[in-house]
Amino acid sequence: MPTVGVKRDLLFTALGRTYTDEEFDELCFEYGLELDEITSEKEIISREQGGSKASGASDVILYKIDVPANRYDLLCLEGLVRGLQVFMNKMEAPRYRRVRPVSGEPQRLVITKETAAVRPHAVAAVLRNITFTQERYDSFIELQDKLHQNVCRKRSLVAIGTHDLDTISGPFTYTAKPPGEISFKPLNQTKEYTATQLMSLYKTDSHLKHFLHIIEDKPVYPVIYDSNGVVLSMPPIINGDHSKISLETKNVFIECTATDVTKAKIVLDMMVTMFSEYCAQPFTVEEAEVVYPDGKTCKYPELAYRKEKLSSEFINRKVGINESTETLARLLTKMCLRSEVTGAGDEIEVEIPPTRSDVIHACDIMEDAAMAFGFNNIPYTTPLTYTVAHQLPVNKLTELLRQELAAAGFTEALTFALCSKEDIADKLGKKISETRAVHIANPKTAEFQVARTTLLPGLLKTVAANRKMPLPLKLFEISDVVLKDETKDVGARNSRRFCAVYYNKSPGFEVIHGLLDRTMQLLEEKSARGDGYHIQAAEGKKGGGGGWHFRACRNSLNR
Amino acid sequence: KGTLFSPFLTSLLGSRDVTSGLFQASQGSSMADTGVVESLLGLVEKADGGVDSLEAAAGLGVDHQLLVGAVKSLQALGDLISAELRSSKHWELSGEGTEIAEQGSHEARVFGSIPPQGLTQSDLMKLSFGKIGFSKAMSSKWIRVDKAHEGGPRVFRTVRIKFTWTVITAFSENRSSTRVLPAFRTVKSYWITKGSSFSTTITKQETELTPEMIASGSWKEKKFKPYNFQAMGVAPDCGHMHPLMKVRTQFRQIFLEMGFTEMPTNNFIESSFWNFDSLFQPQQHPARDQHDTFFLSDPALAHDFPQDYLERVKKVHSEGGYGSQGYKYAWKVEEAQKNILRTHTTAVSARMLYKLAQQKFTPVKYFSIDRVFRNETLDATHLAEFHQIEGVVADRGLTLGDLMGILHAFFTKLGITKLRFKPAYNPYTEPSMEVFSYHEGLKKWVEVGNSGVFRPEMLLPMGLPEDVSVIAWGLSLERPTMIKYGINNIRELVGHKVNLQMVYDSPVCRLES
């Protein structure tokens, strides 16, 4: 869940009133947000880097607000304020419009076929006559960052570039070239680098190093030029220094390059709907044309308004309330979903704005109606679903046996299903290839290399960790191990196992033997060769199992 | 403030441990000396009103503690005597004060230790009273130091003093505020009188009822030693259930009471298809990242998906359908095939619902409590594996109000009655609600679970009828267990680093309040 930090006082100014922390928390709760933390830059720095580093940092109060992962329209102050104001009936949701430039042709971004090999999609738009202040500018940069981290999947799906349009001249070309052939002065650097040099330069950059892998191994890197050969950006890594925006920038050219065009359109819509508020003509966005390698032309941003029709009966039935069609239309409008009663029965026509890319089905609209109604105003009801309960047989048996084993004087352990290869192989004197273990591809530590194939290592480690306890230790566990099994769709299955350990100064094999006999008695198995159960020495092991048990204990205790 | 050498004070020095003596005596009456018991009975018999234990001890020439022991053992025999606890307060010297009272002040002892030929300063300082006494005697000019003396600084007397009590008292009083302060102490004693069945002879008490006594009937005449209820009994030799499993048993019980059938969750390895794709969780979703999920290298891929269902899943993701816009991206079967350690038991719910959709629809209520795995950063409350509790209800026409009603019934069984719901986001449920309960201890609302109505994009491709709604909720087993048993570090609860003493000591799990 992304967290957005906004300055409290700025937020209250924009909302037109102040709140106590509790009041604001309550408002967030109703709207599906969470006021996660109340802090300040100073507090954050002092917590993360120590008090000495924090001196001089701002102590302006910050609200850290958790935003649902699919609500990209709430990732900045502008969007949060707009959403809450509309929710509280203090304003109407603005209408976002794509407009032609007042004079001349729209900006044009031409995609060449070379991009297909690395990052085939691009969209663009212009924010005309925008007025930045320090706060707006910071928010503009912050939103790009939040979008990059979330919907853009760390720039792998989409990367945003923003440019001062007055420093460059279209038409722009989005192409891809071998890294040696790309050379420009990147953002905040003093000299030109080739793309190859840049990749090694940014290897040590704490921020940019995370994005290098996206194009590193590709034969060609994506790059955008203006008509004079000025590099706007080398997505998804870095923009050119030439076209960087500043507080004085009046006209912003925004491009989004992508591997997923749907996400690119969403991201561009978010950028322009949030910040067109500060244009001379608020909420208007100047269109840009994107020309595809096949000659096809598209206009962006899409800013598409989609209409859905649904019945108030559907909403009432799904939520469990009984509200009039008019009320439901009004509730939906509070959620930035402008709704009208069509008059055809109980039909409501809902308009989904470009900011609400999360609404993809009637059930999303139904949820918004429920939120606006207030989840906590919905009456509790009890469904009359009649069912007879069944226990899973293997779990039922496990429950029964656990009780009996505890009654037999053994204490239940609960150990991890994941462990190291060593735990199930070397330490037990086996080869890992003999174990039928499933292997984990991406363990962060050796503790998670494989799923256990036996419960024994876990019990022995439990003994090792509890050597201070009075002896004897009598432990058992009934739980699942995992074994490869080609007959299953996933190639593996669980197997329920029972394991017990007796740990004392004297071996006491008869104790564990006795527990086995007791267990068999509980399971109505007789001790008999053939028709029943019997124990026999494992081949090649000393003393009927004692040999390898001893070695395993030593290994485990020496950890 | 009394003077230090008041005879009144010194007389108290012997009784300073009276209070602890009372406790020692209560540990067992067998400690009492029979001689003292008999003598005490004799004293009580002769006394008119009664006897004070302090006076009796002094009279008999025994330690007061011993006498108190005798009182206790007599009390245990019934109404032989009655003893009333009395306390009185007295001034009493501190340890240092006692030493001074017995041996003189530090400076006087220093003075006394110095022979006419003097004493080296280092030897003087080795004496226990040397340091303080030296500085005091110096400032009083009773002694002097010859620093240039052969063999090191040497101390000599400067005056001749004939010590009298008065002198010492005067000097000591000057310092009494700092170290020799007398304390006000409570002294406890008993006022002993004859009981209703007073007798000077004591019958021996039996400790055990024997079969012979029952057979002969002699138990009727015997006096039995009372049980000592102050001491702990002998701990039974027994095994123990793990607290997390005790809580699991209770949750299972609750689901069974509510008519929920247990799902077969004994498959830790799951394909991405059932864990994510079937739940309409897009392939670029962050939960499917290497950083969050354990992928398998062997066996790396799953096979044998229901082919027509897989096609429908692919379509709803990439193009939409069933009234949905879909996610509009290129869905890849290779991604769906990747085997993982399941990240939630909802993967099993998906399998169960798909199975349900292949038959004529009947309403179901399912539950499971089993392990799930996350490749996340570990800390005091997060492990790479934990237990998820999940409940699922599928029926025609279920509402959000029904989900709240079921959650209310469920949480009431856990002793949680005050619930509140927060809108939330989850890729496979819509609406989604976080469940909060009011925590009386913390005085705030805390999240206790997650819930929602499964999306049509998940249910309809499975083939479930359109009017069937499926509501579900989930929570972790570890969190309520940690709260219930007051455990702060999850490693003490789960895994081999478990604190076995905690397992031995954990009480039964009763969730209903």
TrEMBL record, chain A:
Gene3D superfamilies under this entry?
Answer: 3.30.56.10, Bira Bifunctional Protein, Domain 2, Phenylalanyl-trna Synthetase, Chain B, domain 3
Q: Where in the cell is it found?
A: Cytoplasm
Where's the B5 domain? 303-380
Could you give a single Gene Ontology term from the biological process aspect?
phenylalanyl-tRNA aminoacylation
Q: Which domain of life is it from?
A: Eukaryota
One GO term in the molecular function aspect is: phenylalanine-tRNA ligase activity
Q: What is its main location?
A: cytoplasm
Q: What is its EC number?
A: 6.1.1.20
Instruction: Enumerate the UniProt keywords alphabetically.
Output: Aminoacyl-tRNA synthetase, ATP-binding, Cytoplasm, Ligase, Magnesium, Metal-binding, Nucleotide-binding, Protein biosynthesis
Its cofactor is: Mg(2+)
Gene Ontology cellular component terms for the protein in this record: phenylalanine-tRNA ligase complex
Q: Which PANTHER family match?
A: PHENYLALANINE--TRNA LIGASE BETA SUBUNIT, PHENYLALANYL-TRNA SYNTHETASE BETA CHAIN AND LEUCINE-RICH REPEAT-CONTAINING PROTEIN 47
Family assignment?
Belongs to the phenylalanyl-tRNA synthetase beta subunit family. Type 2 subfamily.
Q: What is this protein called?
A: Phenylalanine--tRNA ligase beta subunit
Q: Which organism is it from?
A: Gasterosteus aculeatus aculeatus (three-spined stickleback)
Q: Upper lineage ranks? A: Eukaryota, Metazoa, Chordata, Craniata, Vertebrata
TrEMBL record, chain B:
Q: Name its species.
A: Gasterosteus aculeatus aculeatus (three-spined stickleback)
Where does the Aminoacyl-transfer RNA synthetases class-II family profile domain start and stop, copy by copy?
Answer: 246-507
Cellular localization per UniProt? Cytoplasm
Per the UniProt record, which residue ranges are transmembrane?
A: none
Q: Which residues form a coiled coil?
A: none
Q: Does the keyword Thylakoid apply?
A: no
**Record protein name field:** phenylalanine--tRNA ligase
Question: Could you name the domain of life of the organism this protein comes from?
Answer: Eukaryota
Output the Gene Ontology terms for molecular function: ATP binding; metal ion binding; phenylalanine-tRNA ligase activity; tRNA binding
Which of the seven top EC classes does this enzyme belong to? ligase
Q: What UniProt keywords apply to this chain's record, in alphabetical order? A: Aminoacyl-tRNA synthetase, ATP-binding, Cytoplasm, Ligase, Magnesium, Metal-binding, Nucleotide-binding, Protein biosynthesis
Q: Which GO terms describe its cellular component?
A: cytosol; phenylalanine-tRNA ligase complex
